[in-house]
Amino acid sequence: MFGALELGLIYGAMALGVYLTFKVLNFPDLTVDGSFTTGGATAASLIIAGVNPFLATLAAIGAGLIAGYITGLLHTKGGIDGLLAGILTMIGLWSINLRIMGKANLPLLREETVFTPLRENMWLGTWVSIAVLLIFTLILKFAIDWFLTTDLGLAIQANGNNRQMIRSLGVNTDNTTMLTLALSNGFVALCGALIAQYQGFSDISMGIGLILVGLASVILGQAVFGSRNIFMASLGALMGSVIYRLIIFLALRAGLDTNDMKLTTALLVVVALLLPRWGFLKRVPSLRSRGNRAASGAPAADDPANEAGAKVPAGTVDVPAGNSEVPAGTTDVPAGTSARTAGTAAASDPKED
Predict the structure, then answer these.
(1) Burial tier of 166 (Cβ tally within 10 Å: 0-12, 13-18, 19+)
(2) What is the Cα 94 distance to its own chain's centre?
(3) How far apart are CA 248 and CA 184, in angstroms?
(4) Cα–Cα distance between 30 and 207 in angstroms, integer?
(5) Could you give the C-alpha distances from 188 to 3, 204, 210, 244, 272, in angstroms and in order?
(6) Three-state SS annotation for 75-96
């Protein structure tokens, strides 16, 4: 259980990166599968070369920033579809990652990593390590929350909502797109570097299918916590990563075959997508909104301007909607007066026939 919580918090950095592209920028970025491995490969290679693990992790973030920026360049300057641009970068990163590592797998079991102090003090797998990782991921979350409330962050949100509108206001949408993709893959590469140091090795295939894990985390979290504002949306992405890891842990404890993990992840995404639409999570908001509508519509029956609740004055002749002509037989009414005005005038006239 502690290991699942630790992995969920570490993968929270990746979930926040996926949240930036898929939810904020509305960009289907598949670079994640490649940039995750790039972060792990860069950190592992530098640590083996004797570089401080914290500096190696920073270098991994830089490599992720470059990978995301390349995808942005292909999309904005090259005019390539966003989905295809991410696939091209992901495929290219496979060979680059092999070049970085020199082979398909790099072990880090005897190397000093960022988790070495926790491991030496026997804190891994305890509440101490979970508290440390929670503080770390919350710092990342609040950094994203703050960034998205700045002028640049608001421009990025507007870019994801309506690119044509924000472009007409003078914002360079190409730059905001490239910046967001770079930041997203920087978070993903950070996660890859931490996972490589946590598990003790970097592997060329460690990022395969990771985009599905990121989507599952974001969708699960926002299905539970909602996305009413930036704070709740980013919190949902972060906690969704933890929920996903706990579900996988419970599935394995129940005897699920490890070969079925990808299928399980796909089913989780499907359930998280359908649950708010068809399930309990949809019915509750609809009942709440129905009650709000009923409460707001209650005084309307007493409103004289409401035709359904207003009493028809005596002497008013029913006239089809939109008919301003006075019905035949109506007397003492000037020509062109509407039926409502005519009835009102007739009812208020003290003169008797």
Answers:
(1) buried
(2) 27
(3) 25
(4) 11
(5) 20, 15, 10, 17, 22
(6) HHCCCCCHHHHHHHHHHHHHHH
| CA–CA–CA angle 47, 48, 50 (5° rounding) | 65
Residue type, 156: I
Whether 198 contacts 10, CB under 8 Å:
yes
3-state secondary structure 232-300: HHHHHHHHHHHHHHHHHHHHHHCCCCHHHHHHHHHHHHHHHHHHHHHCHHHHHHHHHHHHHHHHHHHHH
Asked which of 6-20, 94-108, 147-161, 246-260 is least confident by mean pLDDT, the reply is: 246-260
Rounded to two decimals, what is the model's pTM? 0.75
Assign 125 to helix, strand or coil: coil
Paired strand residues for 107: 201
194-204 confidence digits (pLDDT tens): 999 999 899 99
Cα separation, 194 vs 54, in Å, equals 10
Q: What tokens appear for 74 in the block?
A: 């292909």
Per residue in 208-251, pLDDT (tens digit) is 888 888 888 888 888 778 778 889 888 988 988 898 888 888 88
Task: Report, in this order, helix, strand and coil percent for the chain, each rounded to 5.
Answer: 70, 0, 30
